[in-house]
Design goal:
single chain; 7-stranded mixed beta sheet; 414 residues
Length: 414
């Protein structure tokens, strides 16, 4: 037996950790799918045995189908032909191209801010920015909503500064926390515009009012809202006429915009300081030029594509109405996200598996730690390219499987 084996059986420890997930019904498997350009949300699923089946994707974050938009694809092809594959370095060392600058300019215009700064993902944008701010504002206290994204929680945790967690969307609790702190301390409130697991909205106006009262900065995560809300797709803050009251806006290019990457939009000095101090920005290879080009084309396209937003909202309303009519316990806060509460990880995974195997419908189960135990759910994301027949197929399948699993239904009024 080697010295390493005497200390610990590493393989056994890994097996124990994985078996625990299996026993709790929380083990996640990757579904091998291939999207079909021009036919999304249709895709091809390759089973573990190598056989294939046509499926419809109902859980993707490509909310508006922009991942197959010809304008976006043309911009990416043009950039690949002009520059090749990767960027070749970090933004500071040969990795800043005209495509990166163009993308930042269109994002700054989208949010009516002086500047924008792009990252490889919105996760990195949140983590890098929030972990860097205390370096820029010594003594900073960050007030964070309890249901903020993991990337925000991680950024706040790693920054070494003071943090306060307020109950989800509880402005009174936030006020109490702020009143208890030193009035002279720099402060920042970090929250989201749409919380994606329930689809509920953050109280943006009320939080901005508190920020004004206590002299705090505001930091909003709009990743599930950019492209989707507002007359130009800048998010819920734009829809509500509040963008000018937000100091730092975080967004993604990988959901409604259908490509990849994340960003912040803020004052020129704020973006300059973050890019100069954040290790997550400084030491990361920049996005490939083709990705930046496609993202810029998508942002520009959606500034004037209200018809896609309208069609998506219509499909979401129709799906909610029909599921509610069957007594399904949907969670409806008026957003584009359609969560159906199951409340048990085993049943949640079983319904997901049967939707895929029997009906060719792909909806990944959402279990702990993404949501609290006992709130497991299926999360459907209707898009403008889901047609009425696809909605019919989903509703019929859910009706049958709900009965098959003997799950509770709400009483249906006559």
């Amino acid at each position: 037996m080697t010295a390493r084996e005497k200390v610990l059986d590493y393989t056994a420890a890994l097996e124990t950790a994985l078996n625990q997930l299996h026993e709790e019904g929380r083990y996640r498997t990757f579904i091998d799918i291939e999207r079909r350009k021009g036919h999304f949300p249709r895709a091809v699923w390759t089973r573990p045995d190598g056989t294939q089946r046509d499926i419809v994707v109902w859980c993707g974050n490509d909310y508006l189908g922009m991942g197959q938009q010809p304008v976006v694809l043309a911009a990416m092809h043009e950039a690949v032909d002009a520059t090749g594959a990767g960027s070749g370095g970090t933004r500071n060392i040969s990795g800043t191209t005209v495509y990166h600058k163009r993308l930042e300019a269109t994002l700054a215009d989208l949010h009516q801010k002086e500047a924008a700064l792009i990252f490889t993902s919105a996760y990195i944008a949140n983590d890098a920015t929030l972990s860097t701010l205390p370096k820029l504002f010594p003594g900073l206290i960050i007030y964070s909503d309890a249901l903020n994204h993991a990337s925000m929680i991680e950024g706040v945790r790693r920054n070494g500064g003071a943090k306060r967690v307020f109950r989800h969307n509880d402005v009174a609790h936030l006020r109490a926390l702020m009143e208890a702190d030193d009035p002279a301390a720099p402060k920042l409130i970090a929250f989201e515009s749409i919380y994606s697991m329930d689809g509920d909205f953050g109280p943006i106006r009320e939080i901005c009012d508190l920020a004004d009262e206590f002299g705090a900065l505001t930091y909003i995560d709009e990743v599930h809202a950019v492209g989707m809300y507002g007359p130009r797709g800048a998010g819920v803050a734009e829809r509500d006429g509040l963008m000018h009251r937000i100091d730092i806006i975080n967004g993604t290019l990988a959901k409604a915009y259908g490509v990849m990457g994340g960003y912040i939009a803020a004052s020129a000095k704020m973006c300059d300081a973050v890019r100069s101090y954040a290790p997550g920005f400084i030491f990361t290879t920049s996005l490939p030029p083709a990705i930046a080009a496609g993202a810029a084309a998508s942002v520009e396209f959606l500034k004037t594509a209200q018809h896609l937003r309208d069609r998506q909202q219509d499909n979401a309303r129709i799906l909610k109405m029909r599921l509610r009519g069957l007594g399904m316990p949907i969670i409806d806060h008026g957003s584009h996200i359609v969560p159906v509460h199951v409340g048990d990880p085993v049943h949640c995974k079983a319904i997901s598996d049967m939707l895929l195997e029997r009906f060719g419908i792909y909806a990944q189960p959402i279990n702990f730690p993404t949501v609290p135990r006992g709130t497991e759910r299926l999360r459907f994301t209707p898009s403008p390219v889901h047609d009425p027949r696809m909605i019919d197929d989903l509703v019929r399948a859910m009706d049958g499987l709900w009965a098959h699993c003997a799950l509770n239904r709400a009483e249906i009024s006559a």
